[in-house]
Amino acid sequence: MDSAVLILLILLLPLAGAALNGLVGLFMPSYRSKEGLIGAIGTAMVTVPFLAFVYLFLAYDGEPIVWSAFTWMAAGDLSLDFAYRIDQLSLLMGLVVTGVGSLIHVYSVGYMHGDDGFWRFFAYLNLFIFAMLNLILGDNLVVLFLGWEGVGLCSYLLIGFWYTNLKNSAAANKAFIMNRIGDFAFLIAMFMIFKEIGSLDVGVILTEGLNMPEATIGWIVLLLFIGATGKSAQIPLFTWLPDAMAGPTPVSALIHAATMVTSGLYLLARLSPLVLMAPNVMMVITVVGATTALVAATIAITQNDIKKVLAYSTVSQLGYMFVATGVGAFYVAIFHVMTHAFFKGCLFLGSGSVIHGMHHVEHELAHDGHGHKLDPQDMRTMGGLRKYMPATRMTFLISTLAIAGIPLLAGFFSKDEILFKAFEAASFGFPIGWFAWIVGLITALLTAIYMMRAYVLTFEGAPRWPHADTLHPHESPASMTFPLWVLAGLSMVGGFLGIPAVIAHGDLNWIHHWLAGEGGPVAEKLFDGHVSLALEWGLIALGSAVAIIGVSLGWRWYTTKGLAFDETLKSRFGGLYTLWAGKYFLDEAYDKAVVRPVVGGANHFFAPFDKYIIDGLVNGVAFFTRAVSFVLRYIQTGNVQSYAVSIVFGVLLIVWLMLF
Amino acid sequence: MEVTLNWYLSLSAVLFTAGVIGFLFRRNAIVMLMSVELMLNAVNLTLVAFSQSLGDPQGQILVFFVMAVAAAEAAIGLALVIAIFRNKTTIDVTEFNLFKY
Question: Which of B23, B25, B100 sits opposite A636 (nearest CB)?
Answer without folding.
Answer: B100
